[in-house]
Structures are given as C-alpha cells and as structure tokens.
Amino acid sequence: xxxxxxALNGNRYALARIISLVEDDGANARxxxxxxxxxxxxxxxxxxxGAPGTGKSTLVNQLAKFLRTQDITVGVVAVDPSSxxxxxxxxxxxxxxxxxxxxxxxxxxxxxxxxxxxGLARATSDVVKVLDAVGFAVVLIETVGAGQxxxxxxxxxxxxxxxxxxGMGDEVxxxxxxxxxxxxxxxVNKADRPGAANTARALEMVIDRNSTRGEExxxxxxxxxxxxxxxxxxxxxxxxxxxxxxxxYLRSTGLWTEKERARIETEMLNIxxxxxxxxxxxxxxxxxxxxxxxxxxxxxxxxxxxxxxILEGEK
Amino acid sequence: xxxxxxALNGNRYALARIISLVEDDGANARxxxxxxxxxxxxxxxxxxxGAPGTGKSTLVNQLAKFLRTQDITVGVVAVDPSSxxxxxxxxxxxxxxxxxxxxxxxxxxxxxxxxxxxGLARATSDVVKVLDAVGFAVVLIETVGAGQxxxxxxxxxxxxxxxxxxGMGDEVxxxxxxxxxxxxxxxVNKADRPGAANTARALEMVIDRNSTRGEExxxxxxxxxxxxxxxxxxxxxxxxxxxxxxxxYLRSTGLWTEKERARIETEMLNIxxxxxxxxxxxxxxxxxxxxxxxxxxxxxxxxxxxxxxILEGEK
Lengths: 315, 315
Description:
Mean pLDDT of chain A: 84
CATH architecture of the largest domain in chain A: 3-Layer(aba) Sandwich
Oligomer: homodimer
Largest sheet of chain A: 7 strands, parallel
Number of domains of chain A: 3
Strand content of chain A: 5-15%
C-alpha cells in the first residue's frame, strides 16, 4: 500500500515518514503530496507568532491541551529558523509537549531551518498540507522568531494569533516587529505580571487608530485583545472562542477562499522561481558562474550587468 | 553631468536621489549603480542586530557619533521590514539621529519594506554599495527585527554586532533568534541594569561551548563580550576597537575576500531568480496563471504538478 494511503488510514508511522520526506525535500515526497492534496482544505490553519520571550510555546501547548478536551484533533508545527545548535532543543522546547504524548489526536513537529529560508517556508507549508489531509481539524503553526520571515510563514494561516507580553522593554514589541497588521487575535500573555493592562491599552490604541483611518469596510474584522496566563491556562478557552469566531467570519465573507488563493499564488511563484534557477544553473554550469563572481568581485562588472549577460547568453 | 559622477564628487543631492532610485527599484538606478560599482570595496560594512528593545538604535547613534569624533565618515542604513504604519516613525526612531544632522560626514537612511522581503534585501545591498562608492569609510546596517530575514541582511556585512540586553525575558534572546552564530562582536547593552552580568555570563557559556566543540581552527575569531550603556555612550569606544580588530582579522586571514565572494554569489542568484520569474510570467500570461491557481484551489491538481506542467509547456 502506498505511504499516502496508509497515512490517510490513520497510520502514524506513515504520517511521520511522509513528513520526514517533506523535510528532506526529496522527490519521494512529491508523489505522496500529490496523493494527499485532494484531501486537504478542511483544517483550520492557525498561526501563532510574537517576539521571543512572550510565552508562545507554552500558550500553544495549552491551546492544544484545551482543544483535546473539546475532542478537536490538533497538529502543531513549530517553526524554528535558527540552527540546530541555537534552536529550541537547547532551551527545552522540544520536551514541552510531553504531557500530550501518546494521544493520537495530537501530532507535533518541530521544523528547523536547513539552508534557505524559502526552503523552510515551503517545507512548513507542505507539512501543514499533510496534517490537513490526514484529518487534523486544527493545525497550529508556531513561529519562534518575530521577523519578517516568521510573519510570512504565519501569514499562510487562516487566522493569526499575535502574542505580546508585558514588561519586555519600553515599547510594544509586536509594533516594532510589524506584527500588528497581520493579527486577527491579539493576546497579552503573562497577564498576571505588572504592566499587562498597560500593554493591552497600548495595543488597543493602535487598533483604534488603525480602524479609524477610514480604510476598513463596515464588516471588517477588528482584532480583539485578550489576556492569558499560559502557565495555568487562564484565558485559553476565550482565546479559542475568538479564533473560532474568526473562522466563521472568513467563511461567511468569502475571505476563506480569497486567502487560500493568495496563499496558493505565493507558493506557486516561489516553487517556480526555485525550479527556474535550478534549471538555469544546470545549463550555465558552475565554472561559468564562478567566472562571473570573480569578475564582480574584481569590480570588472556589476551584478546587474552580469545577470543581464548571463540571461542574454541563454538565448 | 551624470548623477553618479555628481555623487562621486560629493554632491549630497545626487546621492540622495540615487538612493531613492534604488529604493524604487527603477531601471534608472541600474545605470547609476553600474557607474558607481567600480568605486566600491573600500567601506567596512558593519551589521548591527538584536531583538527589539535591546537599544540598537541608540547604540548605532552613539557609534556614529563616536566615529565622527575620530574623523571617520559613516553611513547608516536602518532596515525596518515592518510597514510604514507600524514602522519606526511611530516610535520616534526617525528623529533619533537629529544631533548628527548637518554633518556631511554622516548619511542616514531608513529603509522600509515595499512588498517582498527579497526586494528589501536587494535594495539594502544596493544602498550600501552607493554609500561605499561615494566614500563613506564605515557603513552601519541596523536591522530592526531579529528574525531570519534580518539575520540574512546583517550577514552581508563584514562584521556583525549582536546586541543583547538584560531582563528581557527568561532566556538570552539572541539564542532564540539564532543570532549567536553570526556574531563577531557581542554587546550587552543597558549594562547599568540589573542582570547585565548574568546575561554576559550566559553568553560567555555559549561561546565557550561553541569554541570547544573542536570545530574551530586555531586562528578562528572568537567573539568577545562587551558591555555598553547606549544612553550615555559608555563602552562604545571599546566596542569600536573590537569591530576594527575584526576588520584586521578578516584582512589578514583572507576572509574579507571570501566573505565578499559569498555575498556576491547570494546576490547574483537572487537577482537571477527574480529575473527568470519575471520573464516566465511575461510569457505565460496572467490568465493562464489564474487558471492554474483555480485548479489548485479546487484540489484538481497539486502545486508541484502544476509547476511541472507550466515548465513543460514552455519547452
């Protein structure tokens, strides 16, 4: 039996194997993905992002636990663009889900960067598709950092939760990281710490400013601000309620489909771009590329002129 | 007279104009860049990065001021991948350099994201080239976030300063963000705050672990940990001394050239990739692309199969 069929039938080993193939980006993953793809489109994909130190991992853990009490199946993809060495393993992230182990209604995978950022985004998207296809009702994508790359990965979700925490510096961190505008649900975690109310107020002000600039239509979604304490799970059910409400909003307005088309377009262009470059490099050859790099390094030619020459030479 | 010639002759208006052209990514910038490029290669390019709230902007400001007291000219490129709305302007970053205004030995430019991340990285690299060509001895690239994208932008520098601050959460932030391995100089800013010594010790431990894994050659550069107080400039001269020492290290080991070739290669591949995609889209046409997106959205075909078909159709 094919790996994909096994995974669709609930075989846990086959699922893990396909995900490993996807991570290795092998051609073997392609046929499994093609077989699984018709089964996708059901999962609610939820991105969770925020600056380091806001308690994202713990909150994701609590949300997964809460979903299980509701009998909702959940996949978690923790995306960590840092290296194996500096990655979550060092900080104990990898063991944080211990209390969910053994539950077949949960699947957790940490994704670390292997080379390019684009590769990580692609692999993440494919792993989400696999989890969607085999029937996880909710897929959480947790991004460890708070940079643009993480924003772009979170953006592939239907709903994005942005997490903030009080007392992490002088300003609202999410603002600096440009996370505000992708937030569908805003959470001030560590709400038992001093300054939580101030942080919530600061976020409120930004949302108000955003929504009074006249750019929003009447039925626009305005993110609510919720407070949570991830350590004991306080506020997590209310947070989920808001996430579920956002799903309904997307469904009823047709934005669900619109978002999906945008995601597909981005993904298709990224894959096309990589394939085109690979094909070109195979034709031009390493030696000639090295020659061009040498000429640019010698200031004999600038990079744009070199690129034009390479592409002209192709014709 | 050509804009590039004017800029090379010290015309400030021409310089600002070229940088605007580069930011707009117009074809007009290409000829100016080609004319300027032979004059590049002299500047010491220094990346400054770290999590939000560490005081990067203030430290960059102090470093620029210190360099001016040493009669060293300095260009500053502040890269902010967040939107205009959530960007530095709101937080007062844009005015922070006020006390350097009017000094022709300083040039400061904030770069905000306009669309893609790749576009920002490319524009940043080109602005650095322009500043290098017209003779700024040091070019500081400050990245506002701490994600992988910022890391990649900082990586284009000869020397990377990673900034940490005490009391920003439970762990060393730079660790989580994967910044440690790109650090040539590690700075604990806000050294007058409680916990600074702890933060420095934590960093020290990581460096020790790194350098005793046997992967380092005998003459490897091991980053030192420095403490600064950006608000009053304490520690800034020592920080600069370390940055200058790193430059000497790169020069004497030949790594300067090696780094440059790696940077050129990455840049050339990125530009090639974009050009190839643009050419393909021009040939395939929007209508056909929309059809493919529709088929993928309908789960009629998966994205990899679609990409293969598009590329086959080209032959």
